[in-house]
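Re: weekly structure request thread

Next one in the queue (336 aa):
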Amino acid sequence: MNTANPKPIIGGGTDSAIYEAAGKDKILKERKKIGDIAPGDVAYTSAFNLNARYIIHTCGPEWIDGNHGEREILHSCYRNSLELMATLEAKSIAFPLIATGVYGFPKDEALSIALEEIHTFLLDHEKAKVILVVFDRKSFVLSEERFGGLEAYIDENYVGKQSRREYSRRRRNEDIYEERLLRAGFDEDAGAEPVETFPFEASKKLSLLEPAMDVNLDDMLDIEGMTFQQKLLSLIDTQGLKDSEFYKSAGITKQVFSIIRSNEDYQPKKETAIGAALALKLDMEGAEDLLERAGYAFSPTSKFDVIITYCIKKGIYDIMEVNEALFKYHQKVLKI
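Done, posted below.
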């Protein structure tokens, strides 16, 4: 994908780099046959020396003040490029962040537009692979209305809770250890050897690893509970969602969802379980329950998890919006 100059000449930035890599004389010859490309329109040439079949060329909008149709033109750049990709039966396409270089389009808005158009396209083209290449992560500004408290929330939950929980965990472990020593007849402060405070056989001595409460393992294993798959399908039915509505919103392919539906003991990846919770718009209690059935939990020591919990608590369920926040803080994004 090339962000082309409107005229059949070699521009700067990505345009120049692609011409150099593909063979500028050959590509310029074909480009001249196309002629001018209006902002938002697309055309294609052979890829020549590049490891690709085609180069799709589009001309992005030059940012003036946002009141001259710039956003609509940028939407057209992505939409028309993706439609042309489908027409050419290409399996994948790689985009730069169009118009954010010398054309000056604000990067945060450009990213939102790119993600929106890519997401819409992938809803109907599940097998297509779309790559978005972004160079300047620090320049992105998340929506103040939607994510205004995210940074403070991360500071409080990722740093504060991490420290507090680590401290309380150590204290709790120390208390449990001390309690079990005392129950075994060992006074650590007195420096005495373990003393039998009541008659007992060696085989019945209290192990320091023994659970503090009296629990029968057989009883625990007999407790009936829904698997991840059973709970998921129950929630989909309860909410009256079509399968396609769910798996597209969750970032799950049709093939993967078919496997989930047919396998009662399906073990998803954590990202898949999170995508499902977002698609179902579960509150924190519901999301935590669904993840537990998949064998996972949210951790205050994971910045990824803190961002996800922030989005759930704020009612931000759109996977593209969630990915913007994850991207901003250098976290792996969810599949779409």
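The radius of gyration is 28 Å. The domain at 2-141 is CATH 3.40.220.10 (Leucine Aminopeptidase, subunit E; domain 1).
Next request, please.
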